[in-house]
């Protein structure tokens, strides 16, 4: 799976050089989708784009389901709870 991600990034940016972590890259309908989210007030953790993303992640990873999180910290906390880690 990691090789696929690495290949995707190399192909997308067309370089083996440093790729900025948070530099925006608009190559499709991103601006249109963002405007739609803002117009419909679905800009957080609900809405059709969230549902679609979860479905695509589940499909890509071969999982029954996927859940998006608001932050990496939230994802780690949820993961630790799911595997039974306690304080």
TrEMBL record:
Coiled coil: none
Pfam family, one: DegT_DnrJ_EryC1
Organismal lineage: Bacteria, Pseudomonadati, Bacteroidota, Bacteroidia, Bacteroidales
Gene3D superfamilies named in the record: Type I PLP-dependent aspartate aminotransferase-like (Major domain)
Protein name according to UniProt: DegT/DnrJ/EryC1/StrS aminotransferase
InterPro entries: DegT/StrS_aminotransferase, PyrdxlP-dep_Trfase, PyrdxlP-dep_Trfase_major
